[in-house]
Every structure is written in structure tokens, then in C-alpha cells.
Design brief:
- The chain is of the alpha+beta class.
- It has 46 helices and 26 strands.
- The strands form 6 sheets. The protein has an 8-stranded antiparallel sheet with strand order 17-18-19-13-14-15-16-20. A 7-stranded antiparallel sheet has the order 9-8-7-6-12-11-10. Strands 1-5-4-3-2 form a 5-stranded antiparallel sheet.
- A hairpin with a 2-residue loop joins strand 11 and strand 12.
- It is globular.
Length: 1103
Amino acid sequence: MWLKPDEILLKNAFKLWVTEKDNEYFVLQRRRGYGEGGGGLTGLLVGTLDTVLDSTSKVAPYRILHHTPDSQVYWSVACGVTREEIFQHWEWLQQNIMRTLSVFDSSEDITSFVQGKIRGLIAEEGKTSLVLEDDPEKFREALLRFEKWFEIPTEEKLVTYYSCSYWKGKVPCQGWLYLSTNFLCFYSYFLGAEVKLVISWEEIWRLEKTSNVILTESIHVLAHGEDHYFSMLLHLNETFSIMEQLADYSIKRLFDKEAFEREPALSDPLQITKRGLEAHAKSQQFRTFFRLPKEENLLEVHEGFLWVPFSHFNTLGKICLSENYLCFASQDGSQCHIIIPMREVVNVEKPDSGSRALTVFVRGKKALRFSEVRDFQRLANTIRSRCGISASPQHSASPEVTRSHKDSSKAVSTEALMTVFHPQDVENLDPKMLKEKMKEQSWDIHFSEYGRGTSMFFTRKTRDLIVRGVPESLRGELWMLFSGAVNDMATHPGYYTELVELSLGTSTLATDEIERDLHRSLPEHPAFQSDTGISALRRVLTAYAYRNPKIGYCQAMNILTSVLLLYAKEEEAFWLLVAVCERMLPDYFNRRIIGALVDQAVFEDLIRENLPQLVEHMTDLSFFSSVSLSWFLTLFISVLPIESAVNVVDCFFFDGIKSILQLGLAVLDYNMDALISCSDDAEAVTILNKFFDSVTNRDSPLPPTVQQALVSNNGKASHVGVDISELIREAYEKYGSIRSEEVESSRKRNKLYVIQTLEDTTKQNVIRVVSQDVRFNITQLDELYNLFKRQHFLSCYWTMKSPALLHHDPSLAYLEQYQLGFQQFSELFSLLEPWAFCTYKSNLSLWVFRLIDENQDGLINFKEFCCALDTLYSSSFTNKLKFLFKLHLPPGYCVFLAFTGSPLHSEKQRILHYVPVPEDSSHLTRLSGRGRIDLQAYLKQWQNEILKKEETIKDLPRINQTQFIQFSKTLYNIFHGAPEEESLYRAVAHVTSLLLRMEEVGRRLQEPSSPSESEKAAGTSPAEDSSTEQGPVTPESCDTSSSHNSQDAGSELSDTEWSFSFEQVLASLLNEPTIVDFFDRPLNIQTKLGLARVAQLKGLKCS
């Protein structure tokens, strides 16, 4: 590697470097302790220095220095890990530089020329790969160390590196921490003791910051049941943030199969950079805080003051700009914040350049005045340019979209169901309606002071009004505003009606589940006892399943959507559902409900922190996880009466998941004494159910026919009722100190553990199923599963287009979640195959792949893989032979006729002929959620699997001439390298000739032949027998013998090809004790498993 010329003093390096080559202008040196001799004590000291010092020129074992005869100054210009690499640089210097240096008159000119040339080479190399790094020169040096120490494939992208201490037991090891796209690596070398650590991100169970008496602050990593601690980091928070993001990136890409198509910084695993990760994290925080769409990215941040009209003073905060939004948040984050869509901005003015201020005019005669903005000119220009960009697409829909919206308006409900079924009586002056009117007046006053709509100020007073309760008439409007759904709907006019039309009449698994659950959604409410409510619910759920096939439909979505439809128009309810599923409750509504499980873990942490008395009594908090699952999935709608549950939803749309966690703590706190006195879990469940039944909403203006608490509390007067407003207020007073940032941090920390727990459960289920069909023990299956899963991930590490990612179907059973394409199967099979095949290795793996891929989809699951290995390792001689025999029959061994007339294509052509998976695969149709599912085909396939009988040797077809010759060659390859190789070759040759003679005799018995021909045939047999016993036997000679025999046997009957049945082959081989003993010999897979673990990563080539 070429280095930026750096001045060094050679006299300080005499004891550390040995000169191998030199000339008038360059010196090639080897690091003492490397290469021949080892270096003894000096070598140990040098190795220790190499690890501690932060410069590759001091670490690489070879280097080239430039000097001039009349100068004592030397310049490092190149370094290398291997002798071959450094000698290539030396040769290049000899051929391209040395001839030119003679034309210069002075040493200064020579040195300047060499330095310029080297810098040019470095710039050319770094144009593509290192252009995004903060310090390309230092990064090149770190990359060299990374590749040298860990021997990870060159495709792996190093993201960043840090100096730190790694605690191995009670002793710290000073070294370097390297963070790459797929691995966490650490290297230390101190006086001969080398510490090398490589952990894949997807193997990590815990990642957290910790501190104790010995370590003031450190990063704790739990992987493979081992704890690892990293301390003495100069930028610990930065390091932890990068580690957190890389772990989360791997989880989403490898487990959830996300492609990050809308996030350029993460779309290519070969181009991940520290700068890109930091920008992505900031954008994610920005979107979460301001509830913005996923497409928005944080472009600029300015610090300045905003004139707050309701407080009559300037408040300090940050001005944040994205593609379509201008946002401001005060310094403490809770005092006030405002979101201004660029589509609402009409003008930007700068009063005068001296004040560093600007005024943003918004529709509705509203103006925002920013002052003391350092780069106010740039801010003003950015806002102007963004307004011009965003105004067009967001306000003018295409003619087709507009027409679609008009045509479909009749089919889509334009009123909230509560308005249709329970219109408010204006003349009703009962106390509840009067209180409702007072709430409306309070909100009207708030709107007059803080604004209304998308440009409203969000303040503490807004939260206070939410806690007191939202008026029925304003609920839908405020839900849209607080969730950010109002912006989604404004920027996508006509989108929902298009989805309704496209999804109308589709039949998928999602639509079947939707139809099943429609009448279970708030069945007691009049709105969902009529076709109006049911049809609206069907349209919203079906449209969303069409929009987001990855989620499709999940139970609990129907309950949530029902409540949304009560207070929002149909299109608004759709966008509210989008906001909840895709932003506010990520990963909640999918097959594994990971998001809900993660928030349950967060809830357990909060219980330990805030309710110590309960923890002392109930040490196992998993009970609360099982009880609270419905709380999180339905936002308490499924456990509280509807008139009380909507108040909880109000708080959720304003404060997010934090409000649900606070309310959960308040519920447990309210029932603390009763829960502590419980004798078992059933009693605790009963207590909580009675409590939820007793919750009322005394201020609700809904009629008695709708209020569930009135119906459910009949006969339960003994239980004291609790008002939902008081419960929510208590939750905010006691637990309002919980910060959203802390919740997000806890979510990230617990997500790893939750996913790994689910993965471990999946592994146990798969092993339990597979163990019934194989003879491997549980430990061996566990190791096989880990290797198989890792091979699956290795195929996804450096590409977003691997077969495993492109054709992943999350709806499949757990047994099908991890599959291997041919390339990955071939690599893993070569590590675990029981015999060392000398040739045709890739051909044999291709035949095995074809044979065990029963559904012909080009992917192998774990069960198919284990059954094949089990046959080769543990089956009887007959079953092993049957497996090898079937390899040489279609679909395993196939002969493709090329245009040249050759019977076989090249290996690559044959692989490509088989491996591709069609784009319209059935499992992709199921994944899309948009195609029609053939349920009859599923049932027929299931019935065939149940009725499938065990194959007998009589069911196998006969093997023809070409297949038999290849079968013989395979046996030779299997026996290569065995101790009894010579006798095995002789046995195969004998069996081959015997089978050919048997076939010839059989033909002669079936066809008339002259006596002389029979005698001639019989007379040649002893000669053939004797020929097989003369001299040493080789695979080549055996192949020749077999081919001669086949030519002789078929010379007189050339028009008819000969073939053998499996019974004939088996009977012949059973007469050869050497072959029988070879296949019956016990094979131990444990040794292979140990070697495979080490070699799996080193032998990998990026496919």
C-alpha cells in the first residue's frame, strides 16, 4: 500500500528494521521479528509496539523508504503485509521512477517529484473507496491492519476504529477495536500474548453501557454466552452509538430482510461509513421527535431564537430543515416546538443583514420571526429553494389521480362514524354536555393563542389539555395533527382511493383474515352492527394490506382501526393507521410482534426502577409481560371501556409509547396492595380484569347505548369505580419524568435480546422437528444449525441481492426461514462432506443440491440439508449406496446437449441452467399479498406429503451407460486418499467388469446368437479377469478399463444402450468386502464441525 510521504529518522529504527534491498534512492526493509528467524525478545517487543502505536508504517512488516545520497532524511512511501505485495511496489518504483530521477539536478527536486508521484497514486486509489471517509490517509492505514489481523474477506467494509482496553478476565488488554458492517473485531498484542476477537453483529444478545467499581464506564457485549467489556475509550458515547446502529442495521437486514431502498446511506453494505451512520441516526431522531414521514432526512441544523407570541419573548432552540419541513424545538425540548410544512410557506424576508434575523410567512396570515441565526443567509436561501421544490408535487395531483378521487368518492365514507351514528344534540344542556362545551371553549382559546392546524405550537399547555380530555368533536382533527398523518394525507391526494380500487376484490391470506375479524371489531357498538361501519373497516384494512404487504394484516389492527373510524373520516383513519404501524409502533404488527415484545421488556425495566415493592414480591416479571401484551397491541382498547380507551389514545397520539408505559405503571401502582397479596398469577389476572371493568369516563357525552362501562358494571357495585381522567393525570404526575429518549434507548437495548430469544426458540423448534428424522444428537444438530444459519447470513453480508434475501417469505414456517442457494450450499457442503473427493467436487455438490431440493425452488432448508448429511454419515451401506446411485439419476445428474454437440456444458453453464428462481415464484406471490392464493394446491401438497410412502430399492429407475460411467468415477473419487485406496480401486474395477459381462450375457440370452460368438465372448472373460489383477490400479486405468469393457460389450449391439438396476449394482458391491467395510466404517462428524467453524469465514468468497 502506498503511503503519504512521511519524514522519519532512520537512526531510530536500526534495531527494529532489517534492510533487504536498497539502491541510490530507495530502501526496502523488513520488520525485525517477521519472516525468517522470528526475532526472539526483540520480536516480542516489536510486536507489542506494533499494536500500541497508531501508524501502519510502524505496524506493517515491510516498508519502502525514499532518500537522496546527500541527505540524512528518509521518507516512508510504501508498506506491505506480505513479501509479494512489497516487492510489487519495489518493481514498480524500479521501472517507473528510477529511470526518471537521473534527469534532476538537485536532491530537493528528486524528493519533490517522488512525493508528488506517490500522492498521485494514493489519490487515484482513493477516488472510489475512501472518498467518503473523514481522514482517508489514516483510514487506509487502519484498513491495512484490519485486513492483516483478521483475514476477513476483502469485501467487508470497515466503518471505523478506536483505541481501547478489552477486559479478558481481570486483566485489561490494550489494543484496537474495529467496527465493520458485519463484525465487531478487537486485536491486542503484548509481549507475545495475542488477543484476537471477531463477533458477528447478529450474534450479539446484549449491547449496553455499564459501570462498576473497577470500570468507571465501559461497553458490555454479550455473545455466545460470553461477556466482553471494552473500556478506556476516548469517545465512549460515539463508539457505543456506532455499535448500536451497526447491530440494529444487521438485525433489520439479516433477520427482517429490509432492503433500505429509501435510505441511500444504508442501501449498500459495501458503502457504509461512519459519517453516513451518524447522519442516519440524526435523521431518525429528527423524524421521531417531529412525527415526520420516513422519506424525510435532516439536511441542516441552525441555532437561533424564535419569537413566541403567546409568551412575548424569544426562546432559544434549534431550527431543523428537511426536504419538505421547517421545524423548531426549544432548547429543553418540552417547552415548545412547531412543525411548518414547506407547502405552507408563502415568503421569506430578511429585515436587515445586521440583525441576523429572518421572517417566515405562512398561510393564514401567520409569521415566524427567527433571530440571532449565525448563517441566516443560507437558511433563507434553503427555505426559498425548498418551497419552490415542494409546492408543485404536493398541491397538484395528476389528472388520473384527481379523476380517480372524484369517481371513488361515493364508495369512500367522508364522515366519521361517530358523527353519523351519534350526532351531538346542540340543545342538550345536561352537565356532561356543558362540560364538553367547556372543553371545546378551552381548545378554542388554545387555538387562538398557539395556532391551529399544521403550524400550531406544541407546548406544555397542549399536554395539560390532552390529559384533561379531548372534546368528541375535535378528536379526529387532533389525532391527525399529533400523529403527523395530516401531512401524509396532504402530500398524497387521491392515494387512498386508488388503493381501494386496486385492492377491491383481491383474495389473499390477509383479506381472508380481515373478513374473519370484521365482525369481531367492537361488535357492541352500533356503528359496527351496520354495513356502513363494516364496509369502511374492510376498505381501510384491505387498502393497508395492499400498501404494505410486509405487514399485511395482523390481529389487533381491526380493533385499533375501528376506534379510528369512529372519530376520523375513512381516508383519515387510513393515514392514522399508517402512522401507527409504520412510525409510532414500529415492528408491532408483524408475524412475530417484535415491537410489542420489545416494549414489554422496556416495561419490565421501568417496573424494576419505579415499583421496587412489587419486584420484591414478584421476582419473575414475565407475568406482567404476558398480561400487558394486549395493552400495548391495542393501546388499552381491548381491556378498557371504549369511552375510557379513547382518552388513552388521545395521550398516545401526543406522547407516543411513553404514555402507554406511564399508564401501565399507574395501573400496577393503583393495584399494588392487591397484587402483593396475591397467591398466584390467576388471582392477579382477576384483580386487573376487575379493575379495568371498573374504569369509567364520568365526562363522556356518549349515550348509554354506547358506553361499555355501564353495561359491564351491572351487579358490580361493590368495586369502587376509577375515572380515566384521574388515572391518566396520576400517571403523568408520578411517571411523567420518563423521557422519550430513555424509552428509545431502552428499546434498542432490549431489541437485541428479544430477537435472539425468539431466534433461540426457533432453533429449538427446528432441532426438535429435524431430530425425529436423523441420527445426529442434539448437540450436533445445534452446531449444524449454527453453521447453516451463519452460511445463510454470509450469503447476505456483502449484497442486497442474494437468493436468500430476494426470495425470503416471512409467512413461511420457521423451518423455511433460513435457506441456502447453490453457491452457499456448495461452500458449506464442502466443509462437512464425509469423504475427501479429489475431483468433481463442485459437480457432486451440484448433484446433491438438485437431489435434495424436492420442490425445485433453488433453495435448501435445514431439514433437507441435515437429512442428506445424515445419510452420508450414519446410514447403512445400502442407504448410502442408494443415495450415491440417485445422485446419478435426474434431477441430480443431468446431461445437457450443447450446441457444439458436447454431452455436457461447462460447470458454470450447468449451474446457471438450474439455480435461477423465477421471479413469479409461488412463495413470492404469497409474500406480495396481492395475488390470488391457490388453497387447493396447498391442501393437495399437504396430502401428498402425508401419504408419501418410503421409497424402496425396486422403485429406483435403471441407470444408463453414461450415468453408470459417472457413478464409477464418483466411487474412485470417494476412495481417493483412503489407506486402502489400491484395493478399493481394484474392487470397483472388478465390479464394473462383472456388471458389464452380466449385461452382455443377459442380452445374448434374449437375442439369437451363433455358438462361435458365445464361445468367443466366454473365452475373453478370463483374460479380462486377469487384466484387472495385473499391476497397480489407478483411477485413470480403471476409467480406461471400464470404457473398454463398455465398448466391447456394446460392439455387436451398438444400436441398444445397456443399463443396470440398483439391485444389480448393490448385489455386485456386496461381494466386495473392502467396499462394504469402507462405507460401514463409523464416521465422526464432530471433528468436521470443529474444522468448519474455523474455516467457514476464511474460505468464503463473496458470491
